[in-house]
Amino acid sequence: MDDGLIGGSGTLVSRVANDIRQRIAARTLAPGARLPSIRSFAKTMAASKSTIVEAYDRLVAEGVIQSRRGSGFYVAGRMPPLALAEIEPRPDRAIDPLWVSRSSLDASDGMAKPGCGWLPSSWMPEAGIRRALRALARRQDNSLTDYASPLGLKPLRQLLARRMAEHGVEVMPDQIMLTESGTQAVDLLCRFLIEPGDAVMVDDPCYFNFHALLKAHRAKIIGVPYTRNGPDPELFGKILSQHRPRLYITNSALHNPTGAVLSSVVAHRLLKLAEQHDLTIIEDDIFADFEHQPAPRLAAFDGLDRVIHIGSFSKSLSASIRCGFVATRREWIDGLVDLRIATSFGSGRIGSEVVLSMLKDGTYRKHMDSLRTRLARSMGDTIARLKPLGIVPWIQPRGGMFLWCKLPDGVDAARIAQLGLEEGIVFAPGNVFSQAQAAHSYMRFNVAQCNNPHIFEVLGRLVADQAASASS
Amino acid sequence: MDDGLIGGSGTLVSRVANDIRQRIAARTLAPGARLPSIRSFAKTMAASKSTIVEAYDRLVAEGVIQSRRGSGFYVAGRMPPLALAEIEPRPDRAIDPLWVSRSSLDASDGMAKPGCGWLPSSWMPEAGIRRALRALARRQDNSLTDYASPLGLKPLRQLLARRMAEHGVEVMPDQIMLTESGTQAVDLLCRFLIEPGDAVMVDDPCYFNFHALLKAHRAKIIGVPYTRNGPDPELFGKILSQHRPRLYITNSALHNPTGAVLSSVVAHRLLKLAEQHDLTIIEDDIFADFEHQPAPRLAAFDGLDRVIHIGSFSKSLSASIRCGFVATRREWIDGLVDLRIATSFGSGRIGSEVVLSMLKDGTYRKHMDSLRTRLARSMGDTIARLKPLGIVPWIQPRGGMFLWCKLPDGVDAARIAQLGLEEGIVFAPGNVFSQAQAAHSYMRFNVAQCNNPHIFEVLGRLVADQAASASS
């Protein structure tokens, strides 16, 4: 019996079972897929049929595959069809688009998070939030108990429309729908505008969660290389011709992760190309209020015709108070509201009431003024601390919290991130931002989270170790 | 052949295609517009049908137009592919699954809403919510500014686990993920468990938003007739064999819209069938705390193996404070958290902190005690008011706010709902709950929203008018 030749059927059974497990993990065998018949698989594996039967039975017992009477074996349906991340730890786990989010959200208070995408809690206007909550607790209407209207709190939408007008974006309050977050806004737009299999263009690098989100929508993600002035217009045009994406998602001002700003010249070229190819653009502008000087907005040039504008207060005011918004063509609002009700029902009013009161009483403006100054100082400090380690900013951003840096030659950011996590530091390695995986020697730093010298001690040591072993 | 006359069919195909491209560019044919039928366009262009077919096919290949099976060709592009509701007003608009939600959420304060799915604001524990908010405003940690941990506030999950244990559902706190709402929980589970085109079973009738939600997921919706003891087990089994649904979504206790309760006998049969066919069940239990006596729970019998348990506080505590949860197998939690981060990023802490403090200080328990009594009284009052109108409850529910009623013969609920809306009353006509559209003579009443005699005056008149014209 051939099984005997390679060490007993027990061993071979394990091998066959492992082989199948690996194919499932690698999605060569997708959830719900039919496994090869006993007979044909026995041939492929040069094993006896009884070995295959035993391996299959073992996997059935484990719940990995299922037997359906009279029809064969199938990869278990219960296996989530949509795993955004591999479940098992892998050596390259660091490049998973959710790695930074999960590590940052999971991090205990004692951990340093230079890779995290938001401000430290202590930088937030706590006193103002307390005041807004106390005022809300005194309110004598239905704010505390009832659903918001489908579009969300009207006075807040009116105020947002005025604020957008200051940035040159003409919009009526009924073209604005409030959401729980900027992410939820992008998610609803994807539900509304794309179908599974549609191509969607993002910047390379871009905010890693766009990758995760688009994967959840089963979109085909196409990255366009990002330059210091916005996406490369040449390549942008080529991708439009070749892949016909329905959608392009970007940050125009204070681009995440690079901190770069779209130039007017590039903006005009993009909009022209978008029109030629009937492309819709989502301009995710959640860092708008971090700018010292307003950069060009696609939505301003376009007048919300094919550009959809998104914002939120999670990064500037409080991550705990959920309030984002989307501004778009009036005729799309109804469909978005329907989708929103279908998928999360009504929205609460607490978040929008708190934001409204802080916008109205000046708390928000004062907070952002001092925040910009504080960030500019931290930006300088962080650049100075990174310099002796041989870590060089790609550009010096005009504002915001992000600094996109090149590591010394031969140093792999993902490896640093993994070793960093073992020492209690969450870094953001370049490839989590890169669809083409072309940013392995880059890292994003959040300057607001870099006030701890320990970060640079550890980073210096890890970088030096890697550089040394690379050159040896 | 006429094609020959104007220069060969190849040329004519190009001309026809060009003509359509120009019409699209000039917006004479708007995105989403239906193209002329092959036959009529052939006539217009003085070409053969095969020429038109070839031109259309070419444009489909280019992505300029789209073919929809059985329905013709449409201009591709900016037109949202996923409209949950018809955009144009239609005479049968009342049977749209979002009609009741939109009408209720849009309703002005002066309107009566016997069809609405939640309690009046004045029934909610406002004083308790104020107290909880004031306490929160005094907190000296990161509750007001930071994201919650990925699973959500731990003390609340611990408390929820204890509460579920009282209902016989054994669950560890790390098997629970907090969400913004019950709807968001179901939505995340659909993202996790089903793919476009998968069959999903719901009760007929069921909560109308399940239809809207599943439509957003492009699922094939199969309704199983609902009896006074739960879904019909015979038909349940038949649907499993025939359609192989991956998922069944139901309310076990105080079923929406009927107020019926699952019997233990039916529960066991369902679970046995579910196991045979590897069906996953979502038990949406958001009305759990409205029960006077706990009914059987699928999750309790099953031990969260193939049953997923969902709850929320939107109906019992406040619609403004968003806090729901999902309890499931531990190995699914990670994937759900990933999807949650990808699609709405972190969650806020305000909602869960408020709920936790009201659960802990006894406010919630006292509120629910008096709420149940108040609802029981309103239930009796509503039944008494409906009786003289010839409107008969299908069953007298053991609790909750919903009363599912049969209208007199010949009276169409959708028509009543439309006429009612014109008079400022939001009714919930039966067919919004029915996948098979088999409930045109039924209506759901929310007894908590029925304290206004005007509702019954208008309803009596509308019903009498219709009954009269039906019998004449």
TrEMBL record, chains A, B:
<dbReference type="InterPro" id="IPR036390">
    <property type="entry name" value="WH_DNA-bd_sf"/>
</dbReference>
<dbReference type="GO" id="GO:0030170">
    <property type="term" value="F:pyridoxal phosphate binding"/>
</dbReference>
<dbReference type="Pfam" id="PF00392">
    <property type="entry name" value="GntR"/>
</dbReference>
<dbReference type="InterPro" id="IPR000524">
    <property type="entry name" value="Tscrpt_reg_HTH_GntR"/>
</dbReference>
<dbReference type="GO" id="GO:0003700">
    <property type="term" value="F:DNA-binding transcription factor activity"/>
</dbReference>
<keyword id="KW-0238">DNA-binding</keyword>
<dbReference type="InterPro" id="IPR051446">
    <property type="entry name" value="HTH_trans_reg/aminotransferase"/>
</dbReference>
<keyword id="KW-0805">Transcription regulation</keyword>
<comment type="similarity">
    <text>In the C-terminal section; belongs to the class-I pyridoxal-phosphate-dependent aminotransferase family.</text>
</comment>
<feature type="domain" description="HTH gntR-type">
    <location>
        <begin position="10"/>
        <end position="78"/>
    </location>
</feature>
<dbReference type="Pfam" id="PF00155">
    <property type="entry name" value="Aminotran_1_2"/>
</dbReference>
<keyword id="KW-0804">Transcription</keyword>
<dbReference type="InterPro" id="IPR015422">
    <property type="entry name" value="PyrdxlP-dep_Trfase_small"/>
</dbReference>
<dbReference type="InterPro" id="IPR015421">
    <property type="entry name" value="PyrdxlP-dep_Trfase_major"/>
</dbReference>
<dbReference type="InterPro" id="IPR036388">
    <property type="entry name" value="WH-like_DNA-bd_sf"/>
</dbReference>
<keyword id="KW-0663">Pyridoxal phosphate</keyword>
<dbReference type="InterPro" id="IPR015424">
    <property type="entry name" value="PyrdxlP-dep_Trfase"/>
</dbReference>
<dbReference type="GO" id="GO:0003677">
    <property type="term" value="F:DNA binding"/>
</dbReference>
<dbReference type="InterPro" id="IPR004839">
    <property type="entry name" value="Aminotransferase_I/II_large"/>
</dbReference>
<protein>
    <submittedName>
        <fullName>GntR family transcriptional regulator</fullName>
    </submittedName>
</protein>
